[in-house]
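Researcher: Here's my situation. A collaborator sent me these components and asked whether they could plausibly form a single complex. I don't have experimental data yet, so a predicted model of the whole assembly would be a useful starting point for our discussion.
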Amino acid sequence: MPTAEFPNLFPALPEIFLLVAAMALLMFGVFRKDDEAGPARVRCSRIVARLCILALLCALILVVTMNGSDRVTTFNGMFVVDRFAVYFKVLILISSALSILIAQDYLEVHRVARFEFPVLVVLASVGMMLMVSANDLMALYLGLEMQSLSLYIIASFQRDDQRSVEAGLKYFVLSALASGMLLYGSSLIYGFTGTTSFDAMAGALAAAPGEAVSLGALIGIVFILAGLAFKISAVPFHMWTPDVYEGAPTPVTAFFAVAPKLAAIALLLRVMMEPFGALTVQWQQVIVFISVASMALGAYAAIGQSNIKRLMAYSSIGHVGYALIGLAVGNEAGVRGVLIYMAIYLFMNIGAFTCILSMRRRGQMVVGINDLAGVSKSNPMLALALAIFMFSLAGIPPLAGFFGKLYIFLAAVQAGYFTLAIIGVLTSVVGAFYYIRIVKVMYFDEAEEVLDRRMDRPTALVMAATGILIAIFFIIPDPLLSQAQAAAQSLFGG
Amino acid sequence: MPVAIVLLPLLGAIVAGALAFIDPGSRAAKARIDKLAQAVTCGALLISMVLAIITFNSVAINGQTQTITILNWISSGELEINWGLKLDTLSAVMMLVVTVVSAMVHIYSIGYMHHDPSIPRFMAYLNLFTFFMLVLVTADNLVQLFLGWEGVGLSSYLLIGFWYDRPSANAAAIKAFLVNRVGDFGFMLGILGVFVLFGTVQLDPILAGAAEHADTVLNLFGGEAHALTVICILLFIGAMGKSAQIGLHTWLPDAMEGPTPVSALIHAATMVTAGIFMVARLSPLFEQSDIALSVVTIIGASTAIFAATVGCVQNDIKRVIAYSTCSQLGYMFFACGVSAYGAGIFHLMTHAFFKALLFLGAGSVIHAMSDEQDMRKMGGLWRMIPVTYALMWIGSLALAGIWPFAGYYSKDIILEAAYGAETGVGQYAFWLGVAAAFLTAFYSWRLLLMTFHGKPRADEPVLARVHESPMVMLVPLFVLATGALVAGFIGYDAFVGHESGAFWNGAITVLPGHPALERAHESPTWVKLAPLAVGLAGIATAYVMYFLKPDLPGRVAAAFPRVYRFVLNKWYFDELYNAIFVRPAFVIGRSLWKGGDGAVIDGVGPDGIATATMGIAQAVRRVQSGYIYHYAFAMLIGILVLVSWYVLRSV
Amino acid sequence: MIFQALAFYLFALVAVGSAVMVISSRNPVHAVLFLILTFFNAAALFILMGAEFLGMILVIVYVGAVAVMFLFVVMMLDINFAELRQGFLRYLPIGAVVGLVLLAELLVVLGGWTFAPDASASVQSPAPGLEQVTNTRALGLLIYTHYLFLFQGAGIILLIAMIGAIVLTLRRREGARRQDIAAQVARRPADSVEVRKVPSGRGV
C-alpha cells in the first residue's frame, strides 16, 4: 500500500491558525446562551469580535515572522509563500482587522450585532490568503469561492433590510457567472497545457514559442481575466459594484472595497506574471483596455452621484484602473507601483469609510453627500479627516495618494506607455472634481440640520490613525517602498 | 537619545491629536480627556527637556559632536537626502532653549487655557510645533531644515488661528502665512542655489566646502554675480520672513491674535529666532560674502530702531512686546552681520528666557483682567497681582539690559562687537543699537507703569475679579525668571568670552578678517557703559512721562503730530503694502475673473468641458439600471468583445 | 466497442436535450424533472467511462437529495413563472445573437485546437489504473493525499455555506417548538400522564 508523504504544514500555519480560531470562536458563539437581539447577544458579538481581531493580529505576526525571504511551496506545489504573498497577506489581515473594529458600533446600532459577522470576516480573510498563495488553478478557485461565499453572506447581513439582501443576491448571482467564466477559462488552459499547476503551466507556455500558443489558450486567459476582473470590479465587469456598495451595510462596504480587491489584485498579478508571464505581449492588450475603461468610467460616472457610498464604488472602480496600469506595464517597476498603490489605497479607503460611518443624524446613518454640508463647523475633526482622505484619493501632493499614483505613472512612462500615463493623469483630474466637491460641501455649504457630533471611539481612532498615516506618509515612505520592492522582486526572481 | 528628544513631541502630538477626535459625550469624560492630553503632551515635553539638557552637557560641554542618520528619505538621481540629526554646540543650544521654553509654556497653558473647549487640539498643536522646531534645529541637510521651517510655519498658522471663530484671528493667521511665503520663496531659491553650487544639500559637505567656492561666479540673466552673495541674500530673505525683519515684519504684531502662550513660545522665544539660527548655521557661507553680511547688518539695525519706535506708542500690551521682539531680533541679526554669531546666539538664548517671561507675565495680567489687553484700561494693578508684578520687573530689567540681568551681558557684547567691527555698517549698527536700547528701556517702563501703577482705569466688575494666577501658571514664570536672571553671567564666558572657541567647537566659522568679537573685549570704556547708561536714561524718561507728569505724553504727541502719527501707524507699512501689492492684486484678479475667466475660459474651456463631462456622467448613470440581467448581459458583452478581438486578430 | 459508442451518443443526446428542456419548459415542476433526467444521463456517462463511483454519487446526491429538494422548494414557493418569462422573451433576440456569436467564436477556437508541445507529458495520471484498484479506493488515495489541501478547503467552503444558511434564515419565532433535551430528560411520568378512570358509555 502506497503511503503519501505528509505535506509540510509549516508555510500555511497562519491560515491553519486562523481557521482553527474561527471554528473555535464559532463554537464559543453557538454555545453561549443568547437571546434574539438582546443584550446577551450583543455582548457575545463584542467578545467574539475582539477575539477575532486578536486572532487576525496573531496571524499577522505569524505571517511576518514565519517566513523568510525564500519562496516555499507545499501541498504538492499548490500553495506558495514568498515575499509577494507575505506583503499582500499583511495588508489583507490589517484591512480585515480594521473592518471588524469599525463594524461593531454600526452593527449594534442597527440591531444586527451577531457573533457570526467577525467569524465570517475571518473566514473570508482565510479565503483571500489562500488566493494570494494559490499556485494552482484549483487552489485559486478554491480560495476565490471561500472568500466570495463569506462575502455574499456578510453583504446580506442586515437581513431585514431589503437593500442589503438585494446586494447579497446580486453579488451572488453575478459572481456565480464570473466564476463560470473563470472555470471555463481554466478548463481551456488545462486543455492546452495539460496541467493546473502554475509552475508547470509557465514551463509549458514558455516552451511553446510565440506563434505556437494556440488561440484557445489565449481565449482561456481572457476568460480567467474576466473572472478576476469581476472580483476587482474592473470595467466591463463592474456593474455590480455600485449597487452592492450602496446596499450592503456600510462596514461591509468598507471591507468589500479593500480586502477582496487586495486579494484579487494579488491573484491577478501572480497569474499574469507567473504562469502567463511568457504571453505578456498578448494579454497586455486586454489589461490596457480594462484599465482605460475603468479609469474613464470611474472618473465620469462618479460625478453624478449623490450617495457617498455609490461614489466610493465608482471611486474604487477608477482606482482599480490606475492599479492595472502597473500590471499593463508588466515589468518589475510596474508591479512595484501596484503594490505601493494597493497599500496606500487600503488606508485611504478604510479611512474614508470611517468618516462615512460617522455620518449620523439623530442616531441614524445618512449617506447623502449633501448631508455633509456644514460639517466643518459642527464636527471639524471629521471634516478635516474626510478632507485628507478625499484629497489623497484625488492624488493631491503631499498626501499618500499622490505617491501611489506617482509610482504607477512613473513605471508607465519609463516603460514607454505614455498614452496610458496621460489618460491616467487626465482621468484623475476629472476624478479630483468629485472628491473636491465633497470638501467643498463640507466647508462652504450651509447645513439645514447638522450631523451628530458623537463618534464611536474605535472608529474615531481608526480614522485618526489612517488620517495621520496618509498625511505623513511622505515623511517616511521608505519602509513601504522597500517592502514593495522586495515583494515585486520575488514575483520576478522566481 | 537625541532621536527621542525630537520624536517625543511628535508622539505627544499624535496622541493628543487622536484625543481631539474623541467626542467625550459627558462633561466628566471631557475633563478626563483634557487631563490626559495635558499629561501626555507636558510629559513628553518634560522628558524631552531633560534629555536635551543631558545632550547639551555631552555635546556642548564635553564636545561630543556627532551626526546621526536615521532613515533614507529621498533618493532620486544625484539627490540623496536622509533624515538625520546634526548635533553640535549650535543645535544643542537651540535644543536646550526650545525644549525648556516649550516645556514651560506647555505647563503654563494648562492654567491659561483652562476654560477653553478644545484643549487636546491646542496641546497637540503646541507639541507639533515643538517637534517641527526641533527638526529644524537638528537638521543635517537643508531640505530637512526647510521641512522644519515650513512645519513651524504651519503650526504657527494653526495656532494663530486657533480661535477659528474669530475673523481677526483667521485674518492674522492668513497674513502670517502669506508674508512668510514671500520669505520662503527666497529661502527655496537659496537652497536650490546651494544645490546647484555644491551638488548636495547635506550640511557637512556644504559647510566644509564653502571656502572653495569663495570666488565662484554665477551667470544670472546675462550678468555675472558672486555666487555666494546671491545665495546668502536669498537665504537671508527667508530668514527675514521667519524672523520678522523690517519689510517682512508685518505679520508678527498681528500674530498676537493667537493665545498668549503661543505668542510666548512661537513669536518670542523659538520660531522667530529660526532665521538667526539659520544664518549662524550657515556662517561659513555668509562669511565668504561681505556684501551679504552688510545687508544682514543694515536690515538688522534698521529693524531694531524701527520696531523700538513703534513699540513706544502701542497701547496693546502684547503688541508692545511683539514690537520689542522684532527689535531684539534686529539686534541678533546685526550681531551676525558683524560676524559676532556667538553674540547673536547668546542674545537669542537670553532673549528667549526674558521675552517668554514677559509674554507669559503679560498673559498672566490679561488673565487677571478678564482678557483685557489694552493698557489704557489697566493701571494700579501692582498691589493686586504682586507676584506677576515682580516677575514683570525682572523681565523688563533683563530686556532693558540692566546689570546683572541676562540682557545686560548679551546686549552689551552685541553693541561692543558692532563698534569693534570698525566698519561703516558696524558704526551704523552701533549707533542705532544704542538709540534702540534707550527706546527699549523707555517702552518697557512705559508698559510697567501704565499697567501696574497710576489710578486703576478698568471697569468696576473687572477690577473686582482681578486675581493672582494659579501656581501652575506661576511656576513656569519662576523658572523663566531664573533664566532671565542668571543666563547672562553663566553663559558669557562660554558663548562670547575667552572660552568661546572651545565651546563652539567649530559649529560657527568666523574668518580671520572679521575680528569684531575679539576687538569687542578691547573696546573703550564709554562703549561698554553706553548701553547701561542709555538704559537707565530710558527708564528715567519713562518715569518722568508716565509717573511724575502723566499729562506729558499727550502734550508731546500734540507737539509733534506728524511724527506721532507716523510712528503710531507703524511707519505706514501696512498701508504701503496695501497700496502696492494688495489692491493692485485685487484689481488684476477682478479683471481676470470678470473678463478672462468669465468670458473666455468659462465659455469654452473648463465649463464647456464640465458640461460635456456632466453629459457623459448622465449617460453612464442610465446604464446602471439595477437589474441583474442587465448586469450579467453587460458582462457577457464584455467577454464577447474581448474574445472577438483575439479571434478576429488571429484570423 | 461500437456498442459503447452508441450508448455514449444516446446518453449524451438525451442529456443535452433534457438540459434544453430544463430551461425551456413552461412548468417548473417539469423543469426539475428534466433536470433529474439530465443527472441520470450524466451518471450513465460516468459509468460508461468506468467511473461507477462518481455515477452512483451523482444519482444519490444530486437526484436523491438536491433535485428532490428543488422539487419541494418549487412546489412550496408560489412564483408565477409565466410572468418572469416575459422578460426572457423580450431579451431573447439580442441574447440569442450574443450567444450565437460567442458559440461560433468558441467553435473556431476549438476547431483550431492545438496542444502545448509537452502537454501530453505533463498530463500525469496520478490515479492507478482501474485494473489495479477499485474506483473508490483510487479516489480515496488521491483526495486524502495529493489533493488534501483542496479537500480541506472544500470542507471549509461547505462550513461557510452552512453558517450562511443559518445566519440568513434562522429566526426564533414565538410559538415555534424547539427541542429541549434537558426538559425532556427531566420529565417524569407524573408530569404528563394522568390516569383516569373512564366510565363506560361516557366521554372523558
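Model: Some features of this prediction you could bring to your collaborator: Residues 44 and 171 of chain C are 41 Å apart (CA to CA). The radius of gyration of chain C is 27 Å.
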